[in-house]
Amino acid sequence: MPSARYEPEALIRVLVEHDVQCVIIGGYAAGLLGSPFPTRDVDVTPETSKANLDRLARALRALDARIRVPDVEDGLAFSCDGESLGAVQGWNLTTRHGDLDIAFVPSGTRGYPDLVADAVQVTVDGVPMSLASLADIVRSKQAANRPKDQRVLPTLRELVARQRHERR
Q: How confident is the model over 145-152, as a mean pLDDT?
């Protein structure tokens, strides 16, 4: 049964256990890369092969994933198979470990192959993760141009500049 809990490492652990190839994007990834802004969901961009979408579907079933809908506490059930997952551009889901958003081609990117090229590998609480680079997160948030992204972009740009300076 989905809940309001936010346990991002537990959620990602299920994806890893099901061998889902994906890059973590958005606020959670930015937070692990130094952003001070809190988030309450995990955003991922999965690799889109049939085999990976089938693994993603199995992981989502293990997470008791449901479509997140305003004013529907537990979300809506849906046909969770690889073919259905790949038929749309993205999913906003609720799971027993918190909210999960899936974006196959985030704004300003060309999807998984683009994001995995500069991804950062980290381990959090024993869970290995592939995070979009901070520069790619900034690129995507700029392209999305949502008010919530515009509020955090100055700080994220400063973090990118600081990282580039430190690498010199």
A: 95
